[in-house]
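Lab manual, section 2.4: Encoding a predicted structure.

Procedure: take the sequence of the chain (284 residues), apply the prediction step described in section 2.3, and record the output as structure tokens. A sample record is shown.
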Amino acid sequence: MNPASQRPVDVAFPKIDTHCHVFDPLRFPYSPDVAYRPTGGEIAPASYWRQLMDSHGIRHALLVQPNSGYGADNRCLLDAIETGGNRFKGIAIADFSCSDAELQELKARGVVGIAHNFALLGEDAYPGHEKFWQRLAAAGLLVQIQVRDDQILRLAPAIRNSPARFLIDHCGRPGLRDGLQGAGFSALLALAETGRCYIKLSGFDKFSALEYPYPDADRHVAEILAAYGPAHCLWASDWPHLRARQRLDIGALLELFEQQVTDPAARRQILFDTPFKLLGFQPD
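Recorded output:
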């Protein structure tokens, strides 16, 4: 499929993007100790993102605090939520030393979960995460995890034993070369049995070995859909696509989703109904 020949996106069809970022270094300078500082086309102020949302019929979005640029400095994220009306919720980054009162303050400001990026930082970066997950569950906050390859296999026991609800980024970034029977992918599918795990259909550029439309991921996506079902799947763009291997556009990613999910009722549930309920958005 050629992205240039894609069908027009149905702007009237309601959508919620569950993984995107805002970068506004003029108003919120980057933290001095971050490993990567987005520049050029990667800079993404909330004001521009709202216009882009309108052009694709995206009513709401889950803003994810990025390790790039800001790390644990959530000010840009919180400002976007506060100035965006009812359009945004947030996933913040919080240190394990964060008090219960501080977690509740983040929640009051539109944060619905805390991110743990095992794929980028490694498992050793989060010692004692099981106890923190219990605190997040008690606070009514989601645990968002980004993993890759077989990391989910090692984390699965703690996820099963935790009372928290989990939001898994980017299809779990499976090792496609291991096939559908790979240990990590099998563990990912099995977590659907908990009823507390949700997964984002996104991030194919991060784990596919091929270019758009990532045909080597098709069977894995089908298995995820079969295991989790529309009530536990969400769609995301991952905009503005930091350090992407090739240019990515939201329209092309939406068309890819249409090919992956052909049933109209399932599309609506994944694109809107499931994230609307899970993330706590309110009717306009």
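Check your result against the sample. The CA atoms of residues 22 and 46 lie 6 Å apart.
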